[in-house]
Amino acid sequence: MLAPVFEQPRENGTIFNDGGFRGIFVKPVIYLWFLTGTGDPLIFGAATYLGVSFMLRTLVPSDHRKGMSLIRKEKYNEAINYFEKSYSFFKQNDWVDKYRYLTLLSSTRLSYKEMALNNIAFCYGQVGDGGKAREYYEKTLNEFPESGIAKAGLRLLNAASNI
Length: 163
Known about the structure:
By secondary structure, this protein is mainly alpha-helical. Helix content is about 70%, strand content about 0%.
């Protein structure tokens, strides 16, 4: 029987011997725990988790936040670029978006990929490019068939074209 990926030993019998995530993140956290002399590893672990999650929540969706800031300033063409970057990041790192409840402490029902696609479509609609807006709403529905925002956006575009 195979062990789960996160517990499978490497050649030398340890799970922390590689230079990947575990080697970069877990080793320093364990070392800091020993250095601080914190008696309770649960409290140290919780504090570390909250600190790392705050950093991730601030740094990881930074393109999304920049895009939202530009929307508030009505700079839609500039916002599109940031939402495309956000979509690309979360597409490449799907696990961050999938487990955003843990990785980013984000309780939103919508994934960052879905939000990015809908925001790109919205921005194209605001600059008057209905064709691109439709394209992105349809792309959203291809990836997220239950997206209420994309469905509403398409209905709005269809209603506007029937005027």
